[in-house]
Amino acid sequence: MDRNLYEVSRQFFLEGEPVALVPFSNGYINDTWHLTCRNGEGEAHYVLQKVNRHVFKNPEELMENISRVTAWLKRKIRENGGDEQREALNFIQTRDGQYFYIDADGECWRVYVYIDHVRCYDEEKDPEIFYQSAVAFGRFQCLLSDYPADTLHETIPDFHNTVDRFHKFEAAVEADACGRAAGVQEEISFILQREKLAHVLCDLQAQGELPLRVTHNDTKLNNVMIDDTNGKAICVIDLDTVMPGLSVNDFGDSIRFGASTASEDERDLGRVSCSMELYEAYVRGYLESCGAILTEMELAMLPMGAVLMTFESGIRFLTDYLEGDHYFKISREAHNLDRARTQLKLVADMEEKLPQMRAIVEKYSGRMCAPLD
User: What are the φ and ψ backbone dihedral angles of 221, each rounded to 5 degrees?
Assistant: First the structure.
């Protein structure tokens, strides 16, 4: 195994000697390995990650958020008679008692216990699996409903401030640092025509209409572990963006990723739409898990959350493309442009389907949903 990775691994209190590291995960941000250690009783398995310091500039605050939230979750899981070793992430301390290690090059590393006999789905379109992810994220929201959200660090300032994202997009268009704006005028126009849309949730939050909660902020299907034996969701992972936020945004991000009929970077836009079957499966699971703790306004704005998070993601992908692809990892030319186009196509489709989306939330919540205007 790589000597540097071996030395990094040995900074943590592991059960055995590191013997193998295999890269895995297709995340856009961090680098991840499956770490195997051998001891007298057999093998112990872990996940080793290098945190992207370009994105997460303060690992101390990031890991403080994660350690506090996971400790809270584990206590709640114990109180509910669950298995905290499988239903929550268990981070390993370093030899100096921290939950992360900074190497000589300034890179940030962490290790948590590998959960076996589970899998994460990237683009699975089975309504039952999507329902299970909704149960997991809803349970995550419910378990943290009485956590004091304002005590957490904002690890990425203005992460879901759609108004701020819109203004940064305008600046990227104006600067045109890579000379790409001329080729994406249709996409630029689509976004600029929806400036009012960017304000909807931000204005409600500013007016105190939507409560601040502990939110995951990356509620994609592949951030839920599904048990291989019974097909049930057991654990929410990838907690880097856990911080104060809106439940509506977490719900919306799940829909924009999981209810799409195509992959996030699909080039054939004719294949892209929001599946109402998948949307309904998610609404059912989410409200079963956390509907009781959501306010009237949160329930009413769930469909808008789906539109806004998809719109925001389109803005972010296109901004990154215009600025030279420095945030999201890419594997081909114009990859972020493909992602942006997919999101914008979904926005247009969701706008047409909003009456159906509202009716589905009303069906499972018994509440009326807010109109678009």
Answer: -50, -40
